[in-house]
Amino acid sequence: MIRLYDDLIIQTVCRIMIPLIQLFAFYVIAHGHYSPGGGFQGGCILGASFILMVIAYDINWMKRRFSEKKNILLIALGVLIYALVGVLCILLGAEYLNYGILHKIIPTDSVKVRALGTLIIEIGVGITVMAVMVSIFLNLTTLGKHEKGEV
Q1: Which of 23, 35, 41, 145 is deepest in the core (most CB within 10 A)?
Q2: Would you write out the chain's pLDDT as a tens digit for each of its 151 residues?
Q3: Do 89 and 101 meet the contact criterion of CB atoms below 8 Å apart?
């Protein structure tokens, strides 16, 4: 078992900080098409909050909440969200990821539909980046043995 810290103060501070970090990550993802940020940056921040959980507690604590199988499903879900929006645009008669065409199924003007399409894409990217970061971290810290029970 890898346990970097067994300190009540560190765990308490992390318990307070992690939800705030995750809230900031969601803010960066949600406002990425209006201001600096987006899915990649928000996904990195969100992944860092999960990595902070591992540092404050341990890998087994993290595995009970976020197994490798769930991690792989989240990676696939993020890519699927991205791809489905693009394919939906093609099916509606536009180019891949041309969000303006989505006004055919979403009853609003083209500008708002483009912003909504970008937001959906940013959510997919954020989910994928977060899950990949956590997966890379877990594989690096355990030499790839965290799912085999050898940690």
Answers
A1: 41
A2: 445 557 888 889 999 999 999 999 999 999 887 777 789 999 999 999 999 988 888 888 777 778 888 999 999 999 999 999 999 999 999 999 898 898 889 888 888 898 888 899 999 999 999 999 998 988 888 776 666 555 4
A3: yes
